[in-house]
Amino acid sequence: MADVVSLMDIDEDAKDKNHFPRPNKGKSVVVAGNPPDAKATPWVEKYRPQSLADVAAHRDIIDTIDRLTSENRLPHLLLYGPPGTGKTSTILAVARKLYGAQMHNMVLELNASDDRGIDVVRQQIQDFASTQSFSFCGKSSVKLVLLDEADAMTKDAQFALRRVIEKYTKNTRFSLICNHVNKIIPALQSRCTRFRFAPLDAIHVTERLKHVIQSEELDVTESGLAALVRLSNGDMRKALNILQSTHMASQQITEEAVYLCTGNPLPKDIEQISHWLLNESFAVGFRRISEIKARKGLALVDIVREVTMFVFKIKMPSDVRVQLINDMADIEYRLSFGCNDKLQLGSLFSTFARARSALVVAAK
Length: 364
Ligand SMILES: Nc1ncnc2c1ncn2[C@@H]1O[C@H](COP(=O)(O)OP(=O)(O)OP(=O)(O)O)[C@@H](O)[C@H]1O
Ligand SMILES: [Mg+2]
Prior knowledge:
Layout lengths: L42 H4 L12 H12 L6 E4 L6 H13 L3 H4 E5 L6 H13 L4 E2 L2 E2 L2 E6 L6 H14 L3 E7 L7 H4 L3 E4 L5 H14 L3 E2 L1 H11 L3 H14 L2 E2 L1 H8 L4 H13 L2 H15 L3 H12 L6 H19 L4 H23 L1
Parallel strand pairs: 1-6, 1-7, 2-5, 5-6, 8-9
Antiparallel strand pairs: 3-4
Helix pairs in contact: 2-3, 5-6, 8-9, 8-10, 9-10, 9-11, 10-11, 12-13, 12-14, 13-16, 14-15, 15-16
């Protein structure tokens, strides 16, 4: 008997090695049995854009999708890009615009966590696609199948999906959403119009955060807001999650509160640590860094990453800088595999000792 291929089978590579099922990347989870409390609603959901106009940034993409939707010419879509940039929100806003109150009849949402055989899913799509479509303003509207986290599908499932898309194209549009477009087979890519959602730039993250801060009447300092924007790295979900958790932990949202809440080292601590690495003896520097690390509960991997960024700001010959950054990338890599912290801190010192010698030579 032929193997049953799950359309939503998760690629082995895509599974988190230590956690199964897959982590939800900070996305909200509805817990059955717990009535939603308005105050406890995660802000990522409370402030999810409801319409295309609410989606921050990506103006060209949103305008194009908006126009295609208005003209009833929606193609199959492939939305890809890093987390928290508005892919799912955009497609849900499209569905809302197309179908309004009928959305739940017209949209079939499938996710990588739906572990069902291809036959079941094919049947599900067929049942969904073959029922009567509603008419809107005299136009018969196509239905929408959303395949979120499509990059977690196995190659076999993707090949199977090719045929499914072709078969139901007449009255159904497919929207694939993923983070890593290179994990989508070319045959599927070529059936879709692709849009890349880049990380949001600082201006848009700031604007959106200000909107939430105003609505929630929060007390946020200027440097606190700047820290939120810096740590979110263009991921709006992350920005809102940090804002909400910092708000739960402290009355006023300052730079220090934000860094404390996320466990990230403060910029002034990184400056101090870099100073020790560049100037202190091994024994003194090692002791001081170990002490600040323990006192503030910092992870060495975060220290190394931030010191690497700090090195970009220090004036030094470019060959010394390149070598230093290279060596620190190696340490960060080893730490990410759980190598011993003390050994890697020693390694960090020897890296800086080499850089210091090179700086002395360059100065002569
Ligand atoms: N462009 C944006 N404009 C406004 N809010 C946004 C935007 N992008 C993300 N958000 C906020 O982040 C939350 C998560 O966004 P969304 O689910 O659309 O991200 P995604 O791109 O689908 O991420 P993932 O790849 O992790 O699934 C939204 O509920 C919203 O609050
Ligand atoms: Mg999404």
